[in-house]
Amino acid sequence: MFKKFFSSLAPCNTRFQRRMRRLFTVLGVLCVSYYVLIAFVAGLIRTSILYIWLIAAAACFAIAALTPQIAAFAQRTKKWVLVCLAILPTLCFLFFCTVEVAILTGFPSDVPEEEDADYIIILGAKVNPDGPSLQLQRRIDAAYEYLQAHPNTIAIASGGQGSDEPMSEAVCIETELIKRGIDANRILIEDCSTDTAENIRFSRELIDDSPDTTVLIVSNEFHCFRASAIARRYLESEVGHVSSRSVIFLLPHYMVREFAGITVDWLQGNLSFE
């Protein structure tokens, strides 16, 4: 059986098939290389859903290996059947592109130009044994800069403690801000949340949530679109955001991961696009 299977993986016999095989082989190698870059070179093996790049690589290698069989199937299948089979992946691809473009709209900060926001909510991220992760550190940096420039703004440090974290994300944020000279009286703690929707809902209990209140969400640029949409869903306040820059080579991974987060929150009714 195995001999028959492997003998069926005949060499591609057309220029188009050879190009397709090379293309998907190269894509597979790139996916594996990117996984290695993040997991081992950057030392971020615990980055969430990192395995998606190995799954993508396996899919690319499978398509490359089965290119002759795919081509043969297409040749003996009626065109209307092929069109029907192509509709779903095409719609999924268009949906993915639409969401990625929406994520990009959150990259620039959206803040009042002349007045202090009443509150900023600093969303938590991974805390390592030796301190904040790269992404959390960037959020703390952005929050510190805003608080320095706007002395009347109150900060809410938001984020619970994971099973592999030495302290809650909120306490880590508070500690880092106090080290830099931010008055502890300007920092409120929300340390029970486990995801972005809970960050917003639980932080709401600590603020004067009304249409006259201005709240800014502080997070990494890839996260700001979803975080702001969740804030608009659960807060009556005017919502904006302060975006912090991510490590550039990690951005493709977080952009793909954020697509999954937006899809889940959309299905759960956590987003508002008004």
Percent of sequence in beta strands: 5-15%
Q: Give the second-level CATH assignment, the architecture of the largest domain.
A: 3-Layer(aba) Sandwich
Q: What's the mean pLDDT score?
A: 89
Q: So what's the oligomer here?
A: single chain
Order of helices and strands: HHHHHEEEHEHEHEHEH
Largest sheet: 5 strands, parallel
Describe it.
There is one protein chain. With 274 residues, this protein is an alpha/beta fold. The chain folds into 2 domains: 75 residues; 149 residues, HUPs (Rossmann fold), CATH 3.40.50.620. It is elongated, with a radius of gyration of 23 Å.
Quick recap of the structure?
With 274 residues, the protein is α/β, with parallel strands linked by helices.
List the helices and strands and how they pair.
Blueprint: H1 2-7, H2 15-41, H3 52-65, H4 67-75, H5 79-104, E1 119-123, E2 127-128, E3 131-132, H6 134-149, E4 154-158, H7 169-179, E5 187-190, H8 196-204, E6 214-220, H9 221-234, E7 238-244, H10 251-267
Parallel strand pairs: 1-4, 1-6, 4-5, 6-7
Antiparallel strand pairs: 2-3
